[in-house]
Give the backbone structure.
Amino acid sequence: MKIGLHYWNYSQPADPALIAPTLAESARIADRSGVASFTVMDHYFQMETPRSTADEPMLEGYTTLGYVAAVTERMTLGLMVTGVMYRHPGLLAKIVTTLDVLSGGRARLGIGASWYEREQYGLGVPVVPVAERFERLEETLFICLQMWSDDNGPFRGRHYQLAETLCVPEPIGERPSIMIGGGGERKTLRLVARYADACNLFATGREEVTHKLDVLRAHCEMEGRDYDAIEKTVMYNGPVLDSPNRFLADAETYARLGVGEIQVLPDRHPVSFTQQIAEHIVPRAATIG
C-alpha cells in the first residue's frame, strides 16, 4: 500500500512567513521517506468544516506544487483535485505540462467538477448548474488529452472552442496521469471509466468503497475499459497517528479491495505529522498488499 500526503491546511504555524519553510520541510521529509504522492487542495478559501473556517490561510494550488517540485525529487505531485471551473482547459493543460516538465515528469492531473460555491461567488468565478459542470469536465478531459497528443488541431465543443491545441514543450514521458476525484455513481465514475488512469474515493468503510468500485467496474464494462488498469486510491480522513494500528488495519481492508494508495491528512503541525508518518506508518504500509 502506497501512502500519499494530502497537505490541506496552512494554519500551522500561525506566522505566514513560516508557511513556505514548513511546507518545504514537510515535503522533503515525505519525499525522503517513500511517500508516493504529495497533493494540495484547489481552493482559494479554506473549506468550511468542523475543523476549519473560510478565513484560514489558503494558497493557490499549482503555484504551491511548483514550489514543492523544486525541493523534492521523486513524489508524484498533483491537486486533490483541480476544480474544473477555475481554469480554462487549454491553460490548465499548459499549467500541468509546465509542472510536469519542471518536476521531471512527476505531475498528475487530479480533477473534479468543483463544488465550493462560496469561493466561486466571492472571487467572481462563474457558477453554473451541476449538469453543466460535468459537461465542462468531460470537455476539459478531452482537451487535455488532445493537447498531450500529436493532434495540434482545433477543438470545437459545446462550452469550449480552441483554434489550436499546441503544447510545447510536451510533457516528460507519455503524458501526466489523470485522476478523477469523487464517487458520483452516474457521472463521475463513468468519466473515470472513460478517461482516467486513477480514481479517488473517500475511505468511508469497506461496504461503501466496495459498492463504489462495483459501480466503476460496471461502467468499465460498458465503456470497454480494463477495470484493472485504473489505479484505485482513497482519502483517509480519520486519525492516523492516534490510532496507527486501526489505520493500518483499515489499509489492509482497502488493499483487499484493490486500493493501491491511501492519502493521509495532517492533523497537527505538518512537519511533526510527516516525521511520524515517515517513521511509523510508511514502512509498515509498504508490507500491505
